[in-house]
Amino acid sequence: MKLDATDLRYLTSEEFRVLTAAEMGSKNHEVVPSSLIAQISGLRSGGVNKMLGSLAKRNLIAKVQNTKYDGYRLTYGGYDYLAMRALSKRDSMYSVGNQIGVGKESDIYAVADAEGNQMVLKLHRLGRISFRAIKDKRDYMGKRKSASWMYMSRLAAQKEWAFMKILYEHEFPVPKPIDQARHTILMELIDAYPLRQVAEVESPGKLYSHLMDIIVRFAHAGLIHGDYNEFNILIRRETGEPVVIDFPQMVSTSHENAEWYFNRDVDCIRTFFRRRFNYESKLYPRFKSTLSEKGEHDFKLDIMVSASGFAKKDQKVLEEYMDAVKEAEGDDEPPNSEDEDEEEEEEEELMEESDGEEELGVKENVGEEKLPTEGTDGTELLT
Ligand code: ADP
Ligand code: MG
After folding, report:
1. Residue 227 annotated to the active site
2. Confidence of residue 296 (pLDDT cuts 50, 70, 90)
3. Which of 27, 47, 238, 334 suits 267 as a labelling partner, its CA being 20 to 30 A distant?
4. What is the Cα–Cα distance from 224 to 13, expressed in whole angstroms?
């Protein structure tokens, strides 16, 4: 999606008030009635209707014709706007440049602060894949809440932020985290190429051991990256040093499937080096012996992250969502020790639903999901 930085500066404070009201109303309404938006914003309803029209024209909200009532829902564009506005209010960022990456579940932009220093803004886009196909099969949102793209995207950003901060503070080779708002994180721009784009390196053996050392260091600190591959390892242009990115799927070494995740990370590197550099080594880290070694750290980052405000409960919600998406996509999955029978049944059910694939719709669908009843962290912006 294209980000329009012009709006960042030219939205009036009243329009902003209306947009924030739409976000707040989304906490417990799939479609927020115009009257509720007027009420929350505290503005005259005549004026509000005009502003709703102009916000919809800019695709910050979308009009939804409901059988019971007409109303609006916040769009990705609107949520992006609110996040960027929060970042610019705090003087963390000033302008938006080019899109430099698009992942399955994120958009990456080059942005800058007021002095023109370049940074990276990562906008999480969970729920681009509709959860309808998977929603009923797992009770991961509890009874009252159902998942929404806003809520899941925000959780992913908060998790990534918590991990990036702690890793950076402990001198792991990761980008410097700068700020976080809603579903976005702002970080240092690394002058690098993804390993995926690197055709040749001076010494594959040296890079290979370096990358395996990082896996071992992670594990000694209680962590497994969980998506450690040529897309998430950047190679600095100047020095050839690796930098690791992309942390929403990190797991603890005490996770029930820790060994499976650990081995998958190790295998990704081995396979890539074999195919790309024709390099193979008998040396590679094993989970059990790695854990039994005395690491250089006597702290446990996984425990520190849990204590840093990203609660265990949130971890669980996010993890189950991500597993469910992978399952629906037919990706590699860890063995589920909890309930094998249920797993098989679910697979059968999925196969029976021949229209399952079509349900993996684009983001137009997601607005129909119920919105969360908690936290869109926007209240403080109504100033
Ligand atoms: P996703 O979760 O969608 O995979 P990533 O965090 O892996 O998102 O980022 C996607 C791509 O964006 C990366 O492969 C890389 O090319 C680029 N990128 C992300 N973060 C940075 C950064 N800090 N510096 C430079 N490039 C980055
Ligand atoms: Mg990635």
Report:
1. yes
2. low
3. 238
4. 44
Mutation choice for ligand 1 from 121, 122, 196, 322, CB with most ligand atoms inside 8 A: 122
CATH level 3 topology of 5-78: Arc Repressor Mutant, subunit A (1.10.10)
CATH fold of 192-363: Transferase(Phosphotransferase); domain 1 (1.10.510)
Q: Give all strands (DSSP E) within 113-218, no chain letters.
A: 118-124, 177-181, 184-188, 192-194
**Structure pTM?**
0.82
Q: Which residues line ligand 1 (CB under 6 A)?
A: 100-101, 103, 105-106, 108, 120, 122, 175, 187-190, 192, 194, 231-232, 234, 245-246
Domain range list for the chain: 5-78, 88-188, 192-363
Residue-wise DSSP of 229-243: STTSEEEETTT--EE
Q: 231 C-alpha vs ligand 1 centroid, how far in Å?
A: 8
How far, CA to CA in Å, does 134 sit from each of 139, 217, 322, 324, 368? Answer: 10, 35, 11, 6, 15
Residue nearest to atom 19 of ligand 1 (CA): 108
Number of helical H runs and strand E runs in the chain = 13, 13
Q: Mapped to the 3 state alphabet, what secondary structure does 338-364 carry?
A: CCHHHHHHHHHHHHHCHHHCCCCCCHH
Q: Ligand 2 centroid to 322 CA: how many Å?
A: 14
Q: How far is the CA of 263 from the centre of ligand 2 (A)?
A: 18
Identify the CATH homologous superfamily for domain 88-188. Answer: Phosphorylase Kinase; domain 1 (3.30.200.20)
* Active-site residue, from 7, 80, 227, 265: 227
pLDDT in tens, 190-223: 999 999 999 999 999 999 999 999 999 999 999 9
